[in-house]
User: What shape does this take?
Amino acid sequence: MNTRQYGETATQTAQHYYNSSDADTFYYTIWGGEDIHIGLYRAESDDIGAASRRTVERMKQYVQPTAQSTVLDVGAGYGGAARALAGDTGCAVVALNLSEVENQRNREKNRATGLADSIEVVDASFEEIPFENETFDIVWSQDAMLHSGRRETVLREVARVLKPGGRFVFTDPMRTDDCPEGVLDPILDRLHLDDLACPAFYRDTLSGLGFSEVRFEEMAQQLATHYQRVHDETVARDGELSQVVSRDYIERMKKGLQHWVDGGRRGYLTWGIFQFRKNA
Assistant: This one.
């Protein structure tokens, strides 16, 4: 990422980053234009896009939306999950995302797949969700909340807009509960964050907001596998990428991806699918 401008929040920094031509072109090219999140890999050489879709399918099995469900995807990226949910079940989805560039791609894909009437794309931050209390049956998020420096605010907003009995399913790259201080500084510096959340943070905060934990399928090894796979794909497609992405960005991305791989393999990072239920 570029250096954060004076006075910017972490969320604003993320917005400027994902709106940049280099970032948008890189993610769209490497992930295939549907998703930007950690995948579920059966083999280390799996296609990134296919692995990413497996994560969506696993999460969808957890919450089992129906045609009557209203779903809010916070940090929706290119909208791949929203299209999978609306296209497979007929549910109504709001894809909330702060990158206007990604949102425009999302809208174009929704029109192309005939899902524009089922998916509302909203330019907004998950720190201030522009919907009334108790609007949604399901809130969904994939690897987005790490970009907020006010994650408790995000969770309060999720609790506010979710109906009693509603379900909250999410993934997020996290530090382990016993992660030593300072070892993740290279990652935090790149993201312009003071810290990452940990499983205990989500459990404690959501419990205090009136949620009950349904499950946590912890799959820490998938994090390291995913970032290694993206790193290797970036190296393999260097020549192609260098035609459309700046050399400086590519080199910084390679370095940043390696930090994620190292943190995961050394046991400092974890990842998985959390599911919570808002108490009635």
